[in-house]
Design brief:
Number of domains: 2
Structural class: alpha/beta
Distance between the termini: 82 Å
Largest sheet: 5 strands, parallel
CATH architecture of the largest domain: Alpha-Beta Barrel
Order of helices and strands: HHHHHHEEHEHEHEHEHEHEEEH
Number of strands: 10
Bound molecules: zinc ion
Radius of gyration: 31 Å
Length: about 325
């Protein structure tokens, strides 16, 4: 009959433990023989397995084998929530030794209308500028790259989670028809319509970025800390839930509060804080503070000239 494997059994249940102790004490070679027998028994499969052993919980393995715990943490993580948390740059720009020039950044409102938007989009294409979103900028930072010199970010402000006026759709359609993305700054109140999120999800899938423009479009500098939390973190959660993808960009209402320490701290879940003036370069650690300018209303070539003059071609 094959020897039974003693490993894992209670020591007191094993016959070798008491009666043969003196033999081993007198004859160390017997230890070696016994060890070989035990190892052979343990290596052999059990003759008649009573039942399949239960899987060892990975938490237990992690404590037994500390070097595996990092891997096992993945298995222990709870399932992903419906909303995918947006990535933060794995290293700060300071650690990478990067200071980036802010790309040409333009702020539009619905009054700009579809016709001007079409002119603007044509002018962007004619100059060979690369339209991108802040989320695209983040993807570049993750690779250790600043935005390209010919980059331009066009954002459209004041959409909401209940109803959007026709001009928004016209502007978006003008850009979409030319395969250019926009950043859509959504006032994300928690009273929402499901149908509108379907539209936002479609735009997001098409490369448009859905950014937070706060919950109620209030002047940040006039708000208490508690209200700032509602505006900044509340709108973040509304977008996470509605879009299934958390925002990376907070577009400040009226451009107010850029660099305010309270806003930086409460808005730390965002990678980018966008104002109206300032922010022509960014570095250090997120949230990064970037500026924008409004367009010229008559001449979209002039709008691009204004952008070149403000942000510099190639920056610093
Ligand atoms: Zn606004």
């Amino acid at each position: 009959m094959a020897a039974a494997c003693p490993i894992g059994r209670r020591a007191t249940a094993h016959p070798m433990t008491h009666r043969r102790t003196s033999l081993f004490r007198k004859n160390p070679a017997a230890w070696a023989v016994a060890l070989v027998i035990v190892l052979a028994a343990c290596a052999a499969p059990p003759a008649v397995p009573a039942a399949l052993p239960a899987a060892v919980p990975s938490a237990v393995l992690a404590t037994l084998i500390p070097e595996f715990s990092a891997t096992l943490d993945l298995a222990l993580s709870p399932p992903l929530p419906v909303a995918t948390p947006s990535p933060q740059p794995t290293l700060t720009l300071a650690e990478r030794g990067l200071t980036c020039a802010t790309p040409r950044s333009l702020m539009l409102h619905s009054a700009f209308g579809g016709e001007r938007a079409a002119d603007l989009a044509d002018a962007i294409l004619a100059r060979g500028y690369e339209a991108m979103t802040y989320r695209d900028v983040l993807a570049g930072l993750e690779r250790g790259e600043c935005p390209p010199e010919n980059a331009i970010i066009v954002s459209l402000d004041d959409l909401n989670t209940r109803w959007n006026r026709q001009e928004f759709y016209d502007i978006i359609a003008a850009f979409q028809a030319r395969d250019l993305p926009l950043v859509l700054a959504v006032v994300a109140h928690d009273v929402t319509r499901d149908a509108i999120w379907e539209t936002y999800r479609e735009w997001s899938a098409a490369g448009f970025e859905i950014a937070s423009h706060s919950a109620n479009h209030l002047q940040f500098s006039a708000l208490s800390e508690e209200s700032l939390v509602d505006e900044i973190q509340g709108s973040y959660r509304v977008i996470c839930r509605g879009l299934g993808l958390c925002p990376v960009t907070l577009i400040l209402p009226f451009g107010d509060g850029l660099g305010d320490p309270r806003v930086l701290e409460i808005g730390a879940d965002y990678v980018f804080h966008i104002g109206i003036s300032g922010g022509q370069a960014f570095g250090g650690q997120p949230p990064f503070q970037l500026g924008r300018i409004p367009p010229d209303n008559d001449d979209q070539d002039l709008t691009l000239d204004l952008l070149d003059g403000t942000f510099g071609v190639g920056g610093n």
